[in-house]
From TrEMBL:
The keyword Cytoplasm applies. Belongs to the TsaE family. One of its GO terms (molecular function) is metal ion binding. This is tRNA threonylcarbamoyladenosine biosynthesis protein TsaE. GO terms for biological process: tRNA threonylcarbamoyladenosine modification. Its main location: cytoplasm. InterPro entries: P-loop_NTPase, T6A_TsaE. It comes from Candidatus Colwellbacteria bacterium CG10_big_fil_rev_8_21_14_0_10_42_22.
Amino acid sequence: MNKDYLTKNTKETTQLAKELAEEILKRKSKSSVVLALVGDLGSGKTTFTQSFIKALGIKKRILSPTFVIQKRFKLPPSTSFANVYHIDAYRIKPVDLIGLGWIGAISNNNILVVEWADKIKQVLPKDAIWIRFKHGKGETERRITLNRR
Ligand SMILES: Nc1ncnc2c1ncn2[C@@H]1O[C@H](COP(=O)(O)OP(=O)(O)O)[C@@H](O)[C@H]1O
Ligand SMILES: [Mg+2]
């Protein structure tokens, strides 16, 4: 199932992230959810992720994980998920994920958001939600495509 969006500004991208977060929070299943984000630098992956994590109920400031590779936030007990992970795969190889606790994280009820997900495609679950970001015509336009099974 594919869904195409055109956001006209950052606020609309934030809104889209919020809607997806609300939908995922409604899931009762105990399996993990992986969001696989791809798109050029500046296309909005981090903006989307920060809004998404905030909408899950995280109040802390969410920095870009580019320099830390992975950040984990504990989710409120009111959700059926334990943690949300923000992973920047730009500089890593699939094998590096082992040291980051990837296997445990995807085997449990966590939400994982991966920027530059194409770099670790081989280890992503088949039911990952792929989100592609592209610059639009206008300076603040972005084309965002959600692709899921
Ligand atoms: N429609 C939009 N959606 C998302 N970001 C936008 C949009 N319009 C402008 N921007 C700006 O583009 C930049 C996107 O940067 P960022 O989210 O860090 O991208 P990436 O993580 O893909 O490199 C931010 O400065 C953001 O404010
Ligand atoms: Mg980024």
